[in-house]
């Protein structure tokens, strides 16, 4: 049978544990969320825009230089005069000029396409003749057809000498002195070189960096970029595409399959592209999370230690309370409450097992006379002495309690009435042969016993009544003896 006091203590400890751990978890998680949100705000409002500014500034140095060179070439009087005055009669002059541009500015290659002769010049030779029927030359006629408000275009197309290799071209219109279109000049930039720049920025700033055009197509990216080449097709980012492409720049947040991504955009008007700088996780966020886990571990450890001490403390207090509630203070044996509980357990076991159970009532002879003659202190010494002898004489399976005053009850499990009577007679002889020493005298003590065997469904009161009757008979017969109810 479960101890209800133990169950109550266990429930209380479990409830307190859950409350303590829940409170600690809430406090720790709240602190983590506040710190993480502060870090995200700092990244979104300051760090990420600053990175975007730095990247933009470096792009101006690394990528806007070809625009400056192509503009310089388009306004060079040599180019104009060579077309208008010399009428392209000396192709070697243009080839030398383009070679000097490459040497002077360390460009990948420069070019000039004449509208009059449709010749395409590079630093080595006249490479080809441009044709309206050739798909590879479509770029030339698209740029020529542009309005006067746009002087140059940047696009990516196959290298004229190696169609399998993609390059970026800065294509600048060349106009004569009256503003008439006479050709296109410009600079070719290796896509690999630009990607190397992007990857340099990504390593330096620990961000994802790429470029999109005004349709949302990804035009330049590093080797680690593994997403669709159109932001309208990217999870999470597709919902922001319209907002991104209709403003010059801004800060955004989106979820990419459960991963929070911070994004800063900036329009680069010279290229008509958007610079995209993303950050999904700051290194400090991992530090914050590790700190959270460490704090939770420390908190759980401290909580476990605290709860263990609480368990031991409550257990100690509970055992003390249980001892006080179930033990007679004077003798240290069971009191009435504990004895009644013990009887119910033994009675239930005997009913299940058809076992034997007997009870004895023990009463100290002439106890009132002892109190009156020697004092209550001596009487207490006598009661303690009798309780000690009962415990020492009976079996470990027998249960004894102080029922009140100078009366004791004994439950003898597995004993028939006659066996219980024999044990009580032995106990009476042991007590008779002992003495109790007090400050005033040595007291001889005897006891009278009444024994009854438990019957069927009989309750405790009925069993005590039957044993009490034979106890009275023992006292009437001269005391210092034991009798059993037939």
TrEMBL record:
The keyword Zinc does not apply. Keywords: Membrane, Transmembrane, Transmembrane helix. Its EC number is 2.7.7.65. Its cofactor is Mg(2+). Pfam families: GGDEF. It catalyses: 2 GTP = 3',3'-c-di-GMP + 2 diphosphate. InterPro entries: Diguanylate_Cyclase (IPR050469), GGDEF_dom (IPR000160), Nucleotide_cyclase (IPR029787), Rev_trsase/Diguanyl_cyclase (IPR043128). Pathway: Purine metabolism; 3',5'-cyclic di-GMP biosynthesis. The chain crosses the membrane at residues 12-32, 296-314. Residues 355-486 form the GGDEF domain. One of its GO terms (molecular function) is diguanylate cyclase activity. The keyword Transmembrane applies. This is diguanylate cyclase.
